[in-house]
Amino acid sequence: MIRDRKAFYLGIIMMISFLGIYFYMMSPSFGNGRNGLEFADDMFNSISKGSAMAIVEGEVKKTEKWQGTVIDVVIKAKSGEEAANWASQYEKIDGVQVKVDKEALTVKGDLGKIMAVISRDSMDLFNNRGDIVKERYGLEAREAIYNWYNSTKQITKALDKQENFKESAAIQGLQKKVIEPSYNYYGVEIEYVKNNKGVMTFMLVFYLLYTLWYGFAIYYLCQGLGITMSKQAKKAEA
Fold first, then answer.
1. If DSSP codes are grouped into helix, strand and coil, which group holds residue 198?
2. pLDDT of 237
3. Are the C-beta atoms of residues 122 and 142 closer than 8 Å to each other?
4. pLDDT for residue 182
5. What is the pLDDT of residue 234?
6. Which of 2, 22, 89, 158 falls between 20 and 30 A from 193, CA-CA?
7. Which segments cross the bilayer (predicted)?
8. pLDDT value at 26 more than 70
9. Number of helices and strands (H, E) in the chain?
10. What does the angle CA 28 – CA 33 – CA 38 come to, to the nearest 5 degrees?
11. β-strand partners of 106
12. Closest Cα to residue 148, out of 198, 188, 187, 107?
């Protein structure tokens, strides 16, 4: 039963307009068949990638200090095929010696050169130049980077056993700050906050106002029907 017609109809109007905006946001009206949520998600991913760029580039520069440091490790793949795939990539690094024995792989070479090549491939992927990585190894770009990730995980384990902890830590930093971002952000366009201040501000303000709009719509509907918060609390207690 309607107790306050003015409040009730105001609540109805606000709820209808809220749902109208919602259905519009869910429609493919935001470019490339995306709805509003997909557009916002892509925008924030692009902004996030732009913010990550400095971290990735900074970590890549650290690889220079490892030039001249030789590592000699035996690592193990899950299968002979995987070991062969790893070997085919390491063999392309200048001066690196590789031996394959079933699932086992011996890698000996300059750590700085190894990290430089991995960084180069990762940066190409990060910058959406996957075709260049594919041309180098004859593999899908993400597959090649995944090989780097899995093989370097095994290298860090081998280095830890040798108590070469600094070298291991350097490779782990490369994994977390270069290899992983390049894999995760592949295909995402880079955007920067400074170039999208208007859009970012609008989305944040809109989200706040839209949430309040829904809250007031519910409030006026309840008020129009004579449902108060105190009554609801009493019913909940009962």
1. helix
2. 41
3. no
4. 96
5. 47
6. 22
7. 7-25, 199-222
8. yes
9. 10, 3
10. 75
11. 74, 99
12. 107
How much is the pTM?
0.78
Mean pLDDT of 58-85: 94
DSSP annotation of 188? P
Strands (E) in 36-151, as ranges, are 70-76, 97-101, 104-110
Three-class DSSP category at 196? coil
Report the distance separating Cα 137 and Cα 152, nearest Å.
17
The span from the CA of 111 to the CA of 71, in Å, is 6
User: Are 89 and 144 spatial neighbours (Cβ–Cβ below 8 Å)?
Assistant: yes
Structure tokens at 54: 């400095």
Contact 124, 116 (CB under 8 A): no
Contact of 105 with 147, CB cutoff 8 Å: no
Average pLDDT over residues 24-48: 88
Nearest to 71 by CA among 208, 1, 165, 2: 165
176 φ/ψ sector (left φ>0, alpha ψ -120 to 50, else beta)? alpha
CB atoms within 10 A of CB 157: 14
